[in-house]
Amino acid sequence: MRSIMSLKTFSCRVLYKLLNPCIVASIERDAAVLGRSSARGYYNAGKPRCPGPVGAARVRVVDLRSDTVTKPGPAMRQAMAAAEVGDDVMGEDPTVNELQKIAADMFGMEAALFVPTGTMSNLIAVMVHCRERGDEMIVGDLSHLHIYEQGGSAQLAGVHATTVTTLPNGTFDLEQLESKIRHGYPDPHYPRSRLICVENTHNIQGGRVLPLSFLQEVRALADRYGLSVHMDGARVMNAAVFQGVPPSTILQHTDTVSVCLSKGLGAPVGTMLAGPQDFIARAVRCRKALGGGMRQAGILAAAGKLSLLDMVRRLEEDHRNAKTFAQALLDCDAPLFAVDMAAVETNILRFRLEEPGLSPSEFCAHMGQVCEGEEAALGQGIQVLMYPHFGNSVRAVWHLGISPEDTQLAIQKMQFVASQYLNEKLRAQ
After folding, report:
1. How would you classify the pairing of strands 111-115 and 271-275?
2. Going by DSSP bridges, is the β-strand pair 111-115/160-164 parallel, antiparallel, or unpaired?
3. What is the pLDDT of residues 150-201, one digit of tens each?
4. What is the C-alpha to C-alpha distance for residues 100 and 390, in angstroms, rounded to an integer?
5. What phi-psi label fits residue 262: left (phi over 0), alpha (psi between -120 and 50 degrees) or beta?
6. Helix or strand or coil: residue 56?
Protein backbone atom coordinates (compact mmCIF):
# COMPACT_ATOMS: atom_id res chain seq x y z
CA MET A 1 0.00 0.00 0.00
CA ARG A 2 2.86 2.35 0.89
CA SER A 3 4.49 1.81 -2.52
CA ILE A 4 1.21 2.54 -4.30
CA MET A 5 0.71 5.78 -2.39
CA SER A 6 4.29 6.86 -3.00
CA LEU A 7 3.75 6.71 -6.74
CA LYS A 8 1.70 9.89 -6.46
CA THR A 9 4.68 11.84 -5.18
CA PHE A 10 7.05 10.68 -7.88
CA SER A 11 7.94 12.98 -10.76
CA CYS A 12 6.69 12.41 -14.27
CA ARG A 13 10.11 11.01 -15.12
CA VAL A 14 9.94 8.24 -12.52
CA LEU A 15 6.28 7.54 -13.18
CA TYR A 16 6.92 7.09 -16.89
CA LYS A 17 9.71 4.61 -16.21
CA LEU A 18 7.50 2.62 -13.84
CA LEU A 19 4.61 2.50 -16.27
CA ASN A 20 6.68 2.01 -19.42
CA PRO A 21 9.86 0.13 -18.43
CA CYS A 22 10.21 -1.72 -21.74
CA ILE A 23 9.87 1.38 -23.90
CA VAL A 24 12.30 3.49 -21.88
CA ALA A 25 14.78 0.65 -21.42
CA SER A 26 14.79 0.00 -25.16
CA ILE A 27 15.38 3.65 -26.03
CA GLU A 28 18.16 4.03 -23.43
CA ARG A 29 19.78 0.74 -24.48
CA ASP A 30 19.94 1.87 -28.10
CA ALA A 31 21.38 5.24 -27.11
CA ALA A 32 23.99 3.60 -24.90
CA VAL A 33 25.13 1.27 -27.67
CA LEU A 34 25.47 4.11 -30.14
CA GLY A 35 26.88 6.63 -27.70
CA ARG A 36 24.33 9.19 -28.86
CA SER A 37 20.77 9.42 -30.18
CA SER A 38 20.72 7.53 -33.43
CA ALA A 39 20.16 9.23 -36.76
CA ARG A 40 17.89 6.35 -37.67
CA GLY A 41 16.26 5.98 -34.26
CA TYR A 42 13.20 8.06 -34.94
CA TYR A 43 12.02 5.55 -37.52
CA ASN A 44 12.17 2.81 -34.87
CA ALA A 45 10.45 4.50 -31.93
CA GLY A 46 6.75 3.66 -31.98
CA LYS A 47 3.89 5.94 -31.09
CA PRO A 48 3.37 5.90 -27.29
CA ARG A 49 0.59 3.47 -26.47
CA CYS A 50 -0.37 4.64 -23.01
CA PRO A 51 -2.58 7.75 -23.11
CA GLY A 52 -1.79 8.70 -19.53
CA PRO A 53 -2.72 7.96 -15.94
CA VAL A 54 -5.92 6.13 -15.18
CA GLY A 55 -8.70 8.68 -14.87
CA ALA A 56 -7.23 11.23 -17.30
CA ALA A 57 -10.36 12.92 -18.61
CA ARG A 58 -9.10 15.03 -21.49
CA VAL A 59 -5.99 14.35 -23.56
CA ARG A 60 -4.85 16.40 -26.54
CA VAL A 61 -2.26 14.84 -28.86
CA VAL A 62 0.17 17.06 -30.76
CA ASP A 63 1.98 14.82 -33.23
CA LEU A 64 5.34 16.34 -34.18
CA ARG A 65 7.00 13.08 -35.21
CA SER A 66 7.01 13.89 -38.92
CA ASP A 67 5.13 15.74 -41.64
CA THR A 68 4.36 12.30 -43.08
CA VAL A 69 1.55 11.88 -40.53
CA THR A 70 -0.73 14.37 -42.32
CA LYS A 71 -4.16 13.20 -43.43
CA PRO A 72 -6.20 14.34 -46.43
CA GLY A 73 -8.92 16.83 -45.54
CA PRO A 74 -12.51 16.92 -46.83
CA ALA A 75 -11.69 18.83 -50.03
CA MET A 76 -8.92 16.42 -50.92
CA ARG A 77 -11.05 13.37 -50.19
CA GLN A 78 -13.82 14.83 -52.35
CA ALA A 79 -11.39 15.42 -55.21
CA MET A 80 -10.17 11.83 -54.92
CA ALA A 81 -13.71 10.48 -54.96
CA ALA A 82 -14.61 12.50 -58.05
CA ALA A 83 -11.39 11.88 -59.99
CA GLU A 84 -11.60 10.85 -63.63
CA VAL A 85 -9.42 7.78 -64.08
CA GLY A 86 -7.92 5.49 -66.69
CA ASP A 87 -5.07 2.99 -66.99
CA ASP A 88 -1.92 4.94 -66.12
CA VAL A 89 0.46 2.17 -67.26
CA MET A 90 -1.07 2.69 -70.70
CA GLY A 91 -0.76 6.46 -70.26
CA GLU A 92 -4.53 6.81 -70.24
CA ASP A 93 -5.28 8.24 -66.80
CA PRO A 94 -6.27 11.87 -67.45
CA THR A 95 -5.84 12.98 -63.85
CA VAL A 96 -2.33 11.53 -63.65
CA ASN A 97 -1.44 13.13 -66.97
CA GLU A 98 -2.70 16.49 -65.76
CA LEU A 99 -0.76 16.20 -62.48
CA GLN A 100 2.42 15.36 -64.37
CA LYS A 101 2.01 18.42 -66.59
CA ILE A 102 1.33 20.68 -63.62
CA ALA A 103 4.47 19.40 -61.88
CA ALA A 104 6.69 19.72 -64.95
CA ASP A 105 5.56 23.30 -65.54
CA MET A 106 5.94 24.25 -61.88
CA PHE A 107 9.44 22.76 -61.64
CA GLY A 108 10.62 24.15 -64.96
CA MET A 109 11.27 20.65 -66.32
CA GLU A 110 10.35 19.07 -69.65
CA ALA A 111 8.38 16.21 -68.13
CA ALA A 112 7.35 14.58 -64.86
CA LEU A 113 6.30 11.14 -63.63
CA PHE A 114 3.95 10.19 -60.77
CA VAL A 115 5.68 7.62 -58.54
CA PRO A 116 4.29 5.91 -55.41
CA THR A 117 7.09 6.90 -53.01
CA GLY A 118 10.09 9.17 -52.58
CA THR A 119 12.41 6.21 -52.02
CA MET A 120 11.34 4.68 -55.33
CA SER A 121 11.62 8.05 -57.05
CA ASN A 122 15.21 8.57 -55.88
CA LEU A 123 16.12 5.00 -56.84
CA ILE A 124 14.67 5.46 -60.32
CA ALA A 125 16.69 8.65 -60.73
CA VAL A 126 19.88 6.83 -59.77
CA MET A 127 19.07 3.95 -62.13
CA VAL A 128 18.49 6.26 -65.08
CA HIS A 129 21.52 8.48 -64.47
CA CYS A 130 23.83 5.53 -63.70
CA ARG A 131 22.98 3.07 -66.43
CA GLU A 132 25.78 0.54 -65.95
CA ARG A 133 26.42 -1.60 -62.89
CA GLY A 134 29.49 -0.23 -61.15
CA ASP A 135 28.73 3.40 -61.97
CA GLU A 136 29.12 5.73 -59.02
CA MET A 137 27.13 8.53 -57.40
CA ILE A 138 28.44 11.10 -54.92
CA VAL A 139 26.15 11.82 -51.94
CA GLY A 140 26.31 13.58 -48.59
CA ASP A 141 27.13 11.23 -45.74
CA LEU A 142 24.02 12.39 -43.83
CA SER A 143 21.69 12.39 -46.82
CA HIS A 144 18.34 10.63 -46.68
CA LEU A 145 19.22 8.75 -49.85
CA HIS A 146 22.38 7.37 -48.23
CA ILE A 147 21.09 6.61 -44.72
CA TYR A 148 17.37 5.89 -44.87
CA GLU A 149 16.72 4.19 -48.22
CA GLN A 150 18.26 0.79 -47.43
CA GLY A 151 21.12 1.19 -49.86
CA GLY A 152 18.76 0.50 -52.72
CA SER A 153 21.15 2.05 -55.23
CA ALA A 154 23.66 -0.73 -54.48
CA GLN A 155 21.17 -3.44 -53.54
CA LEU A 156 18.94 -3.11 -56.59
CA ALA A 157 20.76 -0.97 -59.15
CA GLY A 158 24.39 -2.00 -58.68
CA VAL A 159 25.44 1.64 -58.24
CA HIS A 160 28.31 2.47 -55.90
CA ALA A 161 28.03 5.46 -53.56
CA THR A 162 30.90 7.57 -52.32
CA THR A 163 30.23 10.20 -49.68
CA VAL A 164 31.22 13.76 -48.91
CA THR A 165 30.88 15.29 -45.45
CA THR A 166 27.53 16.98 -44.89
CA LEU A 167 28.01 20.42 -43.32
CA PRO A 168 25.59 21.81 -40.70
CA ASN A 169 23.67 23.80 -43.33
CA GLY A 170 23.15 20.74 -45.55
CA THR A 171 25.83 21.69 -48.11
CA PHE A 172 29.25 20.14 -48.58
CA ASP A 173 32.74 21.42 -49.30
CA LEU A 174 33.19 21.81 -53.04
CA GLU A 175 36.89 20.97 -52.96
CA GLN A 176 36.10 17.72 -51.18
CA LEU A 177 33.32 17.08 -53.68
CA GLU A 178 35.71 17.57 -56.58
CA SER A 179 38.26 15.26 -54.96
CA LYS A 180 35.67 12.44 -54.97
CA ILE A 181 35.18 12.52 -58.74
CA ARG A 182 36.95 9.57 -60.40
CA HIS A 183 39.22 10.70 -63.21
CA GLY A 184 40.78 7.32 -64.11
CA TYR A 185 37.90 5.63 -66.00
CA PRO A 186 38.18 3.25 -67.86
CA ASP A 187 41.04 2.12 -65.60
CA PRO A 188 39.67 -1.24 -64.32
CA HIS A 189 40.37 -0.27 -60.70
CA TYR A 190 37.77 2.50 -60.54
CA PRO A 191 34.03 2.95 -60.90
CA ARG A 192 32.83 5.72 -63.18
CA SER A 193 31.48 8.91 -61.56
CA ARG A 194 28.10 9.71 -63.04
CA LEU A 195 25.94 11.60 -60.59
CA ILE A 196 25.97 14.15 -57.74
CA CYS A 197 23.00 14.05 -55.36
CA VAL A 198 21.92 16.97 -53.16
CA GLU A 199 19.08 17.19 -50.62
CA ASN A 200 16.85 20.23 -50.20
CA THR A 201 15.62 20.84 -47.56
CA HIS A 202 18.06 18.72 -45.59
CA ASN A 203 16.27 16.31 -43.29
CA ILE A 204 18.90 15.32 -40.73
CA GLN A 205 20.34 18.82 -40.51
CA GLY A 206 16.99 20.20 -39.41
CA GLY A 207 15.19 21.32 -42.55
CA ARG A 208 18.07 23.48 -43.79
CA VAL A 209 17.65 25.18 -47.16
CA LEU A 210 20.50 24.91 -49.67
CA PRO A 211 21.71 28.35 -50.80
CA LEU A 212 21.13 29.07 -54.47
CA SER A 213 24.82 30.01 -54.79
CA PHE A 214 25.83 26.53 -53.59
CA LEU A 215 23.55 24.85 -56.12
CA GLN A 216 24.98 27.04 -58.86
CA GLU A 217 28.52 26.03 -57.90
CA VAL A 218 27.60 22.33 -57.80
CA ARG A 219 26.04 22.68 -61.23
CA ALA A 220 29.20 24.32 -62.63
CA LEU A 221 31.38 21.57 -61.12
CA ALA A 222 29.15 18.84 -62.54
CA ASP A 223 29.22 20.43 -65.99
CA ARG A 224 33.01 20.64 -65.86
CA TYR A 225 33.30 16.87 -65.40
CA GLY A 226 30.27 15.72 -67.37
CA LEU A 227 28.20 14.62 -64.35
CA SER A 228 24.46 14.92 -63.73
CA VAL A 229 22.87 16.51 -60.65
CA HIS A 230 19.82 14.99 -58.95
CA MET A 231 18.02 16.72 -56.09
CA ASP A 232 16.22 14.76 -53.42
CA GLY A 233 13.71 17.58 -53.11
CA ALA A 234 11.26 15.80 -50.84
CA ARG A 235 10.66 19.17 -49.15
CA VAL A 236 11.87 21.50 -51.90
CA MET A 237 8.56 23.37 -51.75
CA ASN A 238 9.46 24.33 -48.18
CA ALA A 239 12.77 25.62 -49.51
CA ALA A 240 11.00 27.66 -52.21
CA VAL A 241 8.66 29.22 -49.64
CA PHE A 242 11.57 30.06 -47.33
CA GLN A 243 13.59 31.66 -50.13
CA GLY A 244 10.57 33.40 -51.63
CA VAL A 245 11.20 32.00 -55.12
CA PRO A 246 9.33 29.62 -57.42
CA PRO A 247 10.68 26.05 -57.29
CA SER A 248 11.91 26.41 -60.87
CA THR A 249 14.45 28.99 -59.66
CA ILE A 250 15.97 26.36 -57.37
CA LEU A 251 15.69 23.51 -59.86
CA GLN A 252 17.33 25.32 -62.76
CA HIS A 253 20.61 24.11 -61.24
CA THR A 254 19.67 20.42 -61.31
CA ASP A 255 19.00 17.88 -64.05
CA THR A 256 16.30 16.03 -62.14
CA VAL A 257 14.30 16.29 -58.93
CA SER A 258 12.13 14.13 -56.69
CA VAL A 259 9.37 16.05 -54.85
CA CYS A 260 7.16 14.40 -52.20
CA LEU A 261 3.45 15.18 -52.16
CA SER A 262 2.82 13.19 -48.97
CA LYS A 263 4.73 15.33 -46.46
CA GLY A 264 3.90 18.97 -45.78
CA LEU A 265 1.78 19.14 -48.93
CA GLY A 266 -0.68 16.73 -47.34
CA ALA A 267 -1.41 14.11 -50.01
CA PRO A 268 -1.81 10.55 -48.74
CA VAL A 269 0.54 9.03 -51.35
CA GLY A 270 2.91 10.04 -54.08
CA THR A 271 6.07 11.72 -55.32
CA MET A 272 6.81 13.58 -58.53
CA LEU A 273 9.99 12.75 -60.44
CA ALA A 274 10.84 15.41 -63.01
CA GLY A 275 13.53 16.00 -65.59
CA PRO A 276 14.24 15.97 -69.34
CA GLN A 277 11.86 14.11 -71.64
CA ASP A 278 14.33 11.31 -72.44
CA PHE A 279 15.08 10.88 -68.73
CA ILE A 280 11.37 10.45 -67.92
CA ALA A 281 10.94 7.98 -70.79
CA ARG A 282 13.63 5.80 -69.22
CA ALA A 283 12.17 6.43 -65.75
CA VAL A 284 8.84 4.93 -66.87
CA ARG A 285 10.63 1.67 -67.66
CA CYS A 286 12.42 1.65 -64.28
CA ARG A 287 9.19 2.43 -62.42
CA LYS A 288 7.57 -0.58 -64.07
CA ALA A 289 10.50 -2.85 -63.19
CA LEU A 290 10.28 -1.76 -59.54
CA GLY A 291 6.55 -2.46 -59.36
CA GLY A 292 5.54 1.20 -59.33
CA GLY A 293 3.28 1.14 -62.38
CA MET A 294 -0.23 1.74 -61.03
CA ARG A 295 -3.47 1.46 -62.96
CA GLN A 296 -6.34 3.82 -62.05
CA ALA A 297 -3.93 6.05 -60.15
CA GLY A 298 -5.96 9.18 -60.84
CA ILE A 299 -7.66 8.71 -57.48
CA LEU A 300 -4.28 9.40 -55.87
CA ALA A 301 -3.18 11.96 -58.45
CA ALA A 302 -6.26 14.07 -57.67
CA ALA A 303 -4.89 14.55 -54.16
CA GLY A 304 -1.50 15.40 -55.63
CA LYS A 305 -3.02 18.13 -57.80
CA LEU A 306 -4.51 19.83 -54.74
CA SER A 307 -1.16 19.50 -52.98
CA LEU A 308 0.70 21.41 -55.68
CA LEU A 309 -2.00 23.95 -56.45
CA ASP A 310 -3.46 24.71 -53.01
CA MET A 311 -1.11 23.55 -50.25
CA VAL A 312 2.21 25.26 -51.01
CA ARG A 313 1.35 28.73 -49.67
CA ARG A 314 0.34 27.38 -46.28
CA LEU A 315 3.82 25.92 -45.64
CA GLU A 316 4.79 29.32 -44.29
CA GLU A 317 2.50 28.69 -41.32
CA ASP A 318 4.45 25.53 -40.46
CA HIS A 319 7.68 27.51 -40.57
CA ARG A 320 6.25 30.16 -38.23
CA ASN A 321 5.00 27.53 -35.77
CA ALA A 322 8.39 25.81 -35.68
CA LYS A 323 10.08 29.15 -34.93
CA THR A 324 7.54 29.93 -32.21
CA PHE A 325 8.31 26.66 -30.42
CA ALA A 326 12.06 27.13 -30.90
CA GLN A 327 11.90 30.58 -29.32
CA ALA A 328 9.91 29.18 -26.39
CA LEU A 329 12.69 26.65 -25.78
CA LEU A 330 15.19 29.51 -25.53
CA ASP A 331 12.87 31.50 -23.28
CA CYS A 332 12.73 28.80 -20.60
CA ASP A 333 13.69 30.22 -17.20
CA ALA A 334 16.39 27.60 -16.77
CA PRO A 335 18.66 27.08 -19.81
CA LEU A 336 17.70 23.45 -20.46
CA PHE A 337 17.70 23.69 -24.24
CA ALA A 338 20.10 24.80 -26.96
CA VAL A 339 18.66 26.06 -30.24
CA ASP A 340 20.36 27.82 -33.13
CA MET A 341 17.54 30.13 -34.21
CA ALA A 342 19.35 31.00 -37.44
CA ALA A 343 19.13 27.32 -38.39
CA VAL A 344 15.35 27.15 -37.88
CA GLU A 345 14.46 27.85 -41.48
CA THR A 346 11.52 25.63 -42.33
CA ASN A 347 9.26 23.11 -40.59
CA ILE A 348 11.88 20.82 -39.02
CA LEU A 349 13.35 21.77 -35.65
CA ARG A 350 16.38 20.17 -34.04
CA PHE A 351 17.35 21.16 -30.52
CA ARG A 352 19.70 19.83 -27.87
CA LEU A 353 19.27 19.33 -24.15
CA GLU A 354 21.90 21.10 -22.09
CA GLU A 355 21.16 19.21 -18.87
CA PRO A 356 23.24 16.00 -18.54
CA GLY A 357 20.58 14.43 -16.33
CA LEU A 358 17.90 14.67 -18.99
CA SER A 359 18.61 12.74 -22.20
CA PRO A 360 16.74 13.27 -25.49
CA SER A 361 15.06 9.89 -25.10
CA GLU A 362 13.89 10.72 -21.57
CA PHE A 363 12.65 14.14 -22.62
CA CYS A 364 10.65 12.64 -25.50
CA ALA A 365 9.23 10.04 -23.13
CA HIS A 366 8.03 12.78 -20.75
CA MET A 367 6.53 14.81 -23.59
CA GLY A 368 4.62 11.80 -24.88
CA GLN A 369 3.15 10.78 -21.52
CA VAL A 370 0.42 12.47 -19.51
CA CYS A 371 2.02 13.04 -16.13
CA GLU A 372 0.68 12.99 -12.59
CA GLY A 373 -0.67 16.45 -11.76
CA GLU A 374 -0.63 17.61 -15.36
CA GLU A 375 -4.39 17.99 -15.72
CA ALA A 376 -4.56 20.10 -12.59
CA ALA A 377 -1.71 22.32 -13.78
CA LEU A 378 -2.66 22.66 -17.45
CA GLY A 379 -6.39 22.00 -17.45
CA GLN A 380 -5.97 18.89 -19.60
CA GLY A 381 -3.52 16.16 -20.48
CA ILE A 382 -1.23 16.89 -23.41
CA GLN A 383 0.82 14.34 -25.32
CA VAL A 384 3.48 15.83 -27.58
CA LEU A 385 5.04 13.22 -29.82
CA MET A 386 8.60 13.81 -31.02
CA TYR A 387 11.73 11.76 -31.47
CA PRO A 388 15.30 11.56 -30.16
CA HIS A 389 17.48 12.32 -33.14
CA PHE A 390 20.95 12.51 -34.61
CA GLY A 391 23.76 14.15 -32.63
CA ASN A 392 22.13 13.84 -29.19
CA SER A 393 19.28 16.10 -30.24
CA VAL A 394 15.49 16.04 -30.43
CA ARG A 395 13.58 16.40 -33.70
CA ALA A 396 10.13 17.94 -34.08
CA VAL A 397 8.32 18.58 -37.36
CA TRP A 398 5.39 20.93 -38.04
CA HIS A 399 2.77 20.24 -40.68
CA LEU A 400 -0.79 21.02 -41.73
CA GLY A 401 -2.19 18.98 -38.81
CA ILE A 402 -0.55 21.31 -36.28
CA SER A 403 -2.21 24.68 -35.71
CA PRO A 404 -0.86 27.69 -33.79
CA GLU A 405 -3.08 26.52 -30.90
CA ASP A 406 -1.46 23.08 -31.00
CA THR A 407 1.94 24.74 -30.96
CA GLN A 408 0.98 26.67 -27.82
CA LEU A 409 -0.16 23.41 -26.20
CA ALA A 410 3.22 21.87 -27.05
CA ILE A 411 4.91 24.86 -25.44
CA GLN A 412 2.81 24.45 -22.30
CA LYS A 413 3.73 20.77 -22.11
CA MET A 414 7.42 21.53 -22.64
CA GLN A 415 7.34 24.11 -19.85
CA PHE A 416 5.56 21.67 -17.55
CA VAL A 417 8.10 18.91 -18.23
CA ALA A 418 10.99 21.34 -17.68
CA SER A 419 9.44 22.49 -14.40
CA GLN A 420 8.90 18.92 -13.21
CA TYR A 421 12.49 18.02 -14.00
CA LEU A 422 13.92 21.07 -12.25
CA ASN A 423 11.72 20.50 -9.17
CA GLU A 424 12.92 16.90 -8.97
CA LYS A 425 16.51 18.05 -9.31
CA LEU A 426 16.07 20.55 -6.43
CA ARG A 427 14.54 17.87 -4.21
CA ALA A 428 17.47 15.58 -4.91
CA GLN A 429 20.05 18.18 -3.84
Report:
1. antiparallel
2. unpaired
3. 999 999 999 999 999 999 999 999 999 999 999 888 888 999 999 999 999 9
4. 35
5. alpha
6. coil
